[in-house]
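Hello,

I think I submitted the 16G job twice by accident. Can you confirm which output corresponds to this input? Input:
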Amino acid sequence: MTELSNSFFSAGPVVLPQGGPLYLQLKRWIEDAIHRGDIGAGDALPSERDLAAKVDVSRVTVRKAVLQLVQDGILVQRHGSGTFVAPQTQRVEQSLSQLTSFTEDMARRGMAVRAEWLDRGIYLPSPEETVILGLSAGDHVARISRLRLTGDMPLAIERASLSAQVLPDPLAIEDSLYRHLDKSGNRPTRAIQRIRAANLDAADAQLLQVAVGSAGLNIERTSYLASGRVIEFTRSIYRGDTYDFVAELRLGDSPTTGSSKT
Ligand code: 16G
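Support: Only one job matched these inputs. Its output is below.
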């Protein structure tokens, strides 16, 4: 057997947690080691053959356990170089009182941001888009869908709809939608945001690199120009394990809090 990569894997005999199929016992053993800090982000796992020999299980059992841990986002596999403990997800705080763009939010934290385009084009509007964007008969809608990432870590999927009069050429957007809108004087100045808990379906979970059914935040933002015209309707899905939305609350001007005039 070749030398095992991490001292944790080369230490004494392995006692798997009891209960359930063998591959789940092995999975729990690895998860527990990560939680205890015996192996940490970026640490390499031994090869399938070495791990099977160490734990005294078949290679098929190791493969099943590792596959599940990869699907759960706990391990990552890099083609040609092996299997590693996934990087710790860094939580991001976003204020609920400032109308900022994703690019600005990330820049303020010194985080490099990028987008993978899932779709962008001009479409016939859905009834919902017609109502929300206040479109007239014959109007078209520009749709842009992006996976938003920092480094290699996906944070959110954003699907935005705007009137095609406002955004006639979605291909012209570079990094930031709001920067693009700013150029034509169409950057929103106010927005209403609705946030709901959601369990991610298979397609969104795969894009966000988390397990199917993981917790997510479903956010709808309707943004307005100073004139009151709706400029953007965006449905976003944020990974629940990476985002904290923070609101500042102030004591309201209610009759019970005002000072007595007597
Ligand atoms: C934010 C907005 C989204 C907007 C985007 C523009 C939320 C939940 N959503 O992510 O509605 O379209 O910023 O970002 O905050 P960009 O200018 O970087 O493209």
